[in-house]
Amino acid sequence: MNLSLSGRTFSIELEWYEQLLSFYLQRTIDIAVSHVERVTTEEPMSNWAELRAPGTFIPGIIKAGTYYTTKGKEFWYVTRSMDYLTLELRDEPYRRIILTVDYSQVWAERISTAIAASL
To answer: Is-cis flag, bond preceding 93, omega within 30?
Structure first.
């Protein structure tokens, strides 16, 4: 997974196997920085009431794909890593995007800075 922040757009570029495991047909998820309400590196809460449609779930190994929760439609690509990056969104197809990425704290700070600059 490759992340990039250019101008007012945050992009998540998925590798082919990440697309396969998450059943996400497009290679890139683009998000307008102005649509990010909150960014955090805290471990997100997950519960049994989520509906996976479609996606992959192997407990303790991977949670990937589209999930429907009480908060709305979410995209998850989480592996064993504990480096969480959670984006809470508005006016986007997904209400939240939850990832595990290297340097999640650095990315959270970069995105927060971009949000502040867009105000």
So the answer is: no
Instruction: Return d(Cα 16, Cα 33) in angstroms, integer.
Output: 25
Query: Residues 30, 97: contact at Cβ < 8 Å?
Result: no
Q: Which residue has the tokens 């998925």?
A: 14
Residue 17 C-alpha from the chain's centroid? 16
CA distance 15 to 50: 25
Cα separations (Å) of 83 from 95, 110, 111, 117? 20, 15, 16, 25
Per the prediction, the chain carries an average pLDDT of 91
DSSP class of 15: P
Q: How many residues does the chain have?
A: 119
Residue type, 29: I
- pTM listed for this prediction: 0.91
Question: pLDDT tens for residues 46-77?
Answer: 766 677 788 898 888 999 999 998 889 999 99
| Euclidean distance between CA atoms 35 and 102, whole angstroms | 23
